[in-house]
Write a structure and sequence with these properties.
The structure holds 2 protein chains of 2 kinds.
Chain A lengths: L6 H7 L4 E6 L8 H10 L5 E4 L11 H12 L3 E6 L5 H13 L4 E5 L20 H14 L16 E6 L7 H12 L4 E6 L3 H11 L6 E5 L5 H10 L7 H13 L3 H26 L4 E4 L7 H8 L27
Parallel strand pairs in A: 1-2, 1-8, 2-3, 3-4, 4-5, 5-6, 6-7, 7-8
Helix pairs in contact in A: 2-3, 5-6, 9-10, 10-11
Chain B lengths: L1 E5 L2 H8 L4 E7 L2 H4 L5 H19 L4 E7 L5 H8 L8 E4 L3 H10 L4 E4 L1 E10 L4 E6 L15 H4 L12 E2 L2 E2 L9 H11 L3 H5 L28
Parallel strand pairs in B: 2-3, 2-4, 4-5
Antiparallel strand pairs in B: 1-6, 6-7, 8-9
The chains are: A alpha/beta, B alpha/beta.
Chain lengths: 333, 228
């Protein structure tokens, strides 16, 4: 069994069905909004992913956001790190910084192509890919050495490494090989792309069982029809089930007030995802669920209530005595 | 071969500016073979320029034309162009960026104007009338283990270890689901050959020193060899 450095990994290893959330910092200098969102998830999820320039749209540094979320909201984070924008020097440097700031989980991603984002004229980097990045982090953690075998001074970084997988991938075989490669390179856990089809998801989990790597299945409660439609259109290989999309679409004409609309969206999400998660828990194949309810975190407590789950008693993220002088940390109001 | 695309004629016209004596130089190499910068295109360019100067500025310019065997060969350029170069103000190169620079290297006093934008190293499909970039000159060829498909060039992210999440049904999200995902092509080809062991092979990070510009090969720098 891999060594658990993070609370998330400890929970996974204890055999508990875990939940992780997802937070998306914006293109801003003010992180109060994302910290407020994080506070909504506290006690429900074991840790929160902090996205790194998602879809290559520029946002505030995920490392800074992850640190401040841990500090201000007291919730452990999974720091997402993409290869799209950093070469091996910048990746190593950011990882050392993350270790110094008490980050314990890294999600090693190749990252979307820069052409897809809001600075499509940028130079794409892709010096490493997710498999190589995973190996690089593993080496830092296990040997205390960088990619070129040079020593890292001080204590070795203590990270648990997550990687992404896409059970919706078509064709699926090359994707499976890719995830196996990442696991062989040192991934501790897997978080998947959004899943809607429970049978397909369980089939995917069965294929993975022999690798004995914990897999957290991604779900995506959608705040509105607009969000659902956009996701359906733009995320490769994943489509929102037609009947679900129709239900979302009908809300606008049925609901009389904004409040009513919100309630109806909540209801549709709860009706769809409660049986999905229950089925997943029953299968015993999944380590947990990664809830990507970005900017819609209020659904998470409702989902817990609907499933009859009690608010988990999660200890505060263990954040080491800060190594940075307080003075340089901006005050988050 | 080297794939080029002719610049808009207005741009070429602007670059020539007030010059009175222009030498247009084509190349029988790559650009001559697929008829973008060979003898025929040189003659055509000469007619267009002459007409344009007359119509736009109402003046005559003296145009000479030549097409060399290979504009990327220093010695060929030197011997072929020396007799023509004396009273020339500017040279308009119809070859790739290497051709234009070779002329500039050999004749240091002459202003060289590129008529083309050099795009990539590619394959010509004459039937489809298309060019495909297939090689990035990365200096570390792994085609033998990728089913003859170059992931460095044909994967938008130049990935070494399998496909990313940006493919669906074998198509790449970059460019709007039109181009093939190189890693799905590689997977299918290797599977067909029963060589999936090569697909799953782990590849170490590239050594980017192999792509460090400016690259040279050979014992003597070409600049040290006397041109004639």
């Amino acid at each position: 069994m891999v060594k658990a450095h993070s609370e998330l990994m400890k929970r996974i290893q204890s055999g508990k069905f875990v939940f992780t959330g997802e937070l998306e910092p914006l293109k801003t200098t003010d992180l109060s909004e994302v910290i407020t969102e994080a506070k909504l998830l506290k006690g429900y999820v074991e840790a929160c992913n902090v996205t790194d320039n998602p879809a290559s749209n520029v946002t505030v540094s995920s490392l800074v956001a992850a640190y401040l979320i841990q500090k201000e909201a007291g919730i452990e984070t999974v720091y997402q790190l993409r290869c799209s924008d950093r070469n091996r020097i910048a990746l190593t440097s950011d990882l050392l910084g993350a270790a110094a700031l008490g980050i314990k989980n890294i999600l090693a991603l190749t990252g979307d192509h820069t052409l897809l984002g809001d600075m499509p004229n940028a130079k794409p980097v892709f010096d490493l890919d997710s498999a190589l990045l995973t190996g690089m982090i593993r080496r830092m953690v296990e040997e205390g050495k960088d990619l070129n075998g040079l020593d890292i001074k001080g204590p070795r970084p203590k990270f648990n490494i997550g990687v992404a997988a896409n059970p919706n991938s078509n064709p699926i075989e090359p994707e499976i090989w890719k995830v196996i490669r990442k696991v062989e390179n040192g991934a501790d856990f897997v978080q998947t792309q959004v899943c809607f089809d429970i049978e397909k998801t369980i089939e995917f989990l069965r294929m993975f069982k022999i690798f004995e790597v914990p897999v957290l299945i991604g779900i995506f409660p959608m705040k509105s029809y607009g969000v659902a439609a956009q996701f359906d259109k733009f995320v490769p290989g994943v489509s929102v089930p037609k009947d679900l999309l129709t239900k979302f679409k009908q809300v606008k004409s049925k609901a009389k007030s904004k409040e009513e609309r919100r309630k109806m969206y909540d209801k549709i999400n709860l009706e769809f995802f409660t049986p999905f998660i229950t089925e997943l828990m029953k299968s015993g194949l999944s380590a947990g669920c990664h809830v990507m309810s970005v900017h819609y975190q209020e659904i998470v407590p409702k989902l817990f209530r609907e499933m009859g789950l009690t608010k988990a008693l999660i200890p505060e993220a263990v954040i080491p005595e800060t190594v940075i002088p307080e003075a340089i940390i901006p005050v988050v109001s | 071969m080297i794939i080029v695309k002719r610049k808009p004629i207005n741009k070429i016209f602007d670059m020539i500016g007030p010059a009175d004596n222009v030498l247009i130089v084509g190349c029988d190499g790559c650009v001559g073979i697929y008829q973008e910068g060979g003898q025929k295109q040189v003659e055509l360019m000469s007619v267009i320029l002459e007409l344009a100067k007359k119509l736009k500025e109402n003046r005559d310019i003296k145009i000479k034309t030549a097409t060399v065997l290979r504009q990327c060969d220093r010695q060929i350029v030197a011997t072929s162009l020396r007799p023509l170069i004396d009273d020339v103000d500017v040279v308009l190169s119809m070859a790739c960026g290497v051709g234009a620079q070779t002329i500039a290297e050999v004749f240091e006093d002459i202003i060289v104007i590129p008529a083309q934008d050099t795009l990539f190293i590619g394959m010509h499909d004459r039937q489809l009338k298309k060019f495909y970039e297939l090689c990035s000159a990365c200096g570390e060829c792994i085609l033998f283990e990728t089913g003859g498909v170059c992931p460095i060039t044909r994967c938008a992210k130049s990935l070494l270890n399998g496909p990313c999440g940006g493919q669906s049904k074998g198509k790449c999200e970059v460019g709007g689901w039109v181009k093939d995902c190189a890693w799905i092509l590689i997977h299918n080809r290797l599977k067909q050959k029963d060589r999936l062991d090569l697909f799953t092979k782990f590849r170490e990070p590239r050594d980017h020193r192999n792509m460090e510009s400016p690259r040279e090969l050979g014992e003597t720098f070409v600049g040290e060899v006397e041109a004639t």
